[in-house]
Amino acid sequence: MLQSAPPDYLLQRPQPHDPPPQYPVYYFFYGALTKPTQLQRIIDLTEEPKLRKAEVIGYDIAKWGDYPALISGEQGQVVSGYAYPVQSAEEAGKLAEYETRAYKVASCCIFFQDGEKPKEVGGKVFMYAGDAQALLEGRLDRKLWERQMGGR
């Protein structure tokens, strides 16, 4: 079996797997979803949601065309936005569909800036799914293109 493995197989570290989320789960938003009316429309809420002012640390925002894209940043770097407690897998699915395959869900620590409790929680965020360096350099992102084309 090892003969069919990639040459660096034994050097690769196993990737940790997140357990399935328990709802509600706070999601951090930094773009169009920071507008309550937009979030209400996307996840089919009957009333406008209450968003909490929040930050994530260790991330940066790059531009993907007209859209902001969250990427890994420097230690201590802060991205400001808002968080909302997503109530179900159905709501999470609607958000993922809205964000497209250009973004992937990642775990994060959300720090609230509104003086309410809790002051911080483990949550989720949509990060750019492609090659962040290609995005920053403005060149073709083959990784994202393949992801959007379904691995073709």
Automatic annotation (TrEMBL):
Residues in Gamma-glutamylcyclotransferase AIG2-like domain copies: 27-130
InterPro entries in the record: AIG2-like, AIG2-like_dom, GGCT-like, GGCT-like_sf
Residues passing through the membrane, by range: none
Keywords: Transferase
Keyword Endoplasmic reticulum: no
Short name of any one Pfam family annotated for the protein: GGACT
Keyword flag Zinc: no
Molecular function, one GO term: transferase activity
Family: Belongs to the gamma-glutamylcyclotransferase family.
Protein name: Putative gamma-glutamylcyclotransferase
